[in-house]
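Notes for week 9. Today we move from apo structures to complexes. The key idea is that a small molecule is not decoration. When we ask for a structure prediction with zinc ion present, the ligand SMILES becomes part of the input, just like the chain. The input block below holds both the sequence and the ligand string. Read it once before you look at the output, and try to guess where the molecule might sit.
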Amino acid sequence: MSNFVFVIDTNKQPLDPIPPGQARRLLNQGKAAVYRRYPFTIIFKYAVDNPRRSEHQLKIDPGSKVTGLAIVQGDRVIWGAEIQHRGQQIKNDLEARKAVRRNRRNRQTRYRRPPIKNRGKRQRSARRLAPSLKSRVHNVMTWVNRIKRYVPITGISQELIRFDTQKLVNPEVMGIKYQQGELFGYEVREYLLEKWSRQCAYCGATNTRLEIDHLHPRSKGGSDKISNLVISCHDCNQSKSDRDIQEFLAQKPDTLNRVLAQVKQPLKDAAACNCSRWTLFNELQQTGLPVEVGTGGRTKYNRIRLGFDKQHWLDSACVGIVDQLILMTKQPLLIVAKGWGNRQMCITNKHGFPIRYRERQKTFFGFQTGDMVKAKLPKGKFAGTHVGRLTVRKSGVFEMITHIGKVSPVRHKYCQAMHRNDGYMYRFSTIVQ
Ligand SMILES: [Zn+2]
């Protein structure tokens, strides 16, 4: 089961997406042609007057490394995608550029004016978003606008905050009765995870299964109030068992004091939200579509209730108020943000020594780095047909990144363009590298 195919009529009017089998039939009958590979879109050879359109909700789960996207038609998930961002890459690139500029200014070449004094400070206003974060927002908006062109989207859902601050007004003092597996339980859990910075309160362990622990154990009359709850790893939780915090940490007075101090500190509202998610929310509202917002707690509650795997695109389908979901696809489109390359003309080794120069030209034999191509190689180690992202060379002997890894050499005459470079690389569920 793969993603539904997007359909536009001859006037480029978006119509309801159709199952892949139906699209294949239309293409074979010559009623439609391929308009675009990624996302796969076909174009009818005729106009459709007053088409019947269903409601389509575009759902987004923004993440720091990967953002999940899903299109839900009624209660059917018909399309999914995951966008891999390049936040760290941007940070590294900017730092490399800074180093090069600093170095150039210090060299005995000619006088170069230093950057305007305090420029950094002035630009860093409260509303400024770091370039790496900005790129995440831009990636998502690019895809929202792209999808809007091919699918009649009627609404957008976005996971905006981790937990509902409205429901948890003054959570520290309120007597909270929560139960495992209940929506409210998930909100409480997300709140605690944020409050304890996603690490074990006792030993500081991260990247492990974190559990909710009662400082004053329930068996000895401890309450379910948030001020009695901490996040701990499985091992600490086990070794503490039903002992009181004072008893458990009797040997470690420093840890005891730290935990007791932090447990009294309520989490500030601001900590619940995250800057780039709010920027994204504001930009989504500019599209003019109604934007529904959900919490991380609710997403998790929906996902576990529906029995879905922990995958970004399935998470995104669970954003907001969900009753029932039927998966019509199991293969999300995997999108990797690649950017548009750089302007560096001289390639250096790790010591900064120039090792080769690049051509000013970007296109060789009709291909550019970043194009998705189909290559039919007649002989050699990689004989056969490959689909992947091209890296061009002046000589006409190219390289490709495919789902089996790097394929090289690929001569230009064996390449057939499928999708021109648009700043992203594509693949289906098969893992690359
Ligand atoms: Zn621990």
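The pocket of zinc ion is lined by residues 200, 202-203, 205, 232-233, 235-236 (CB under 6 Å).
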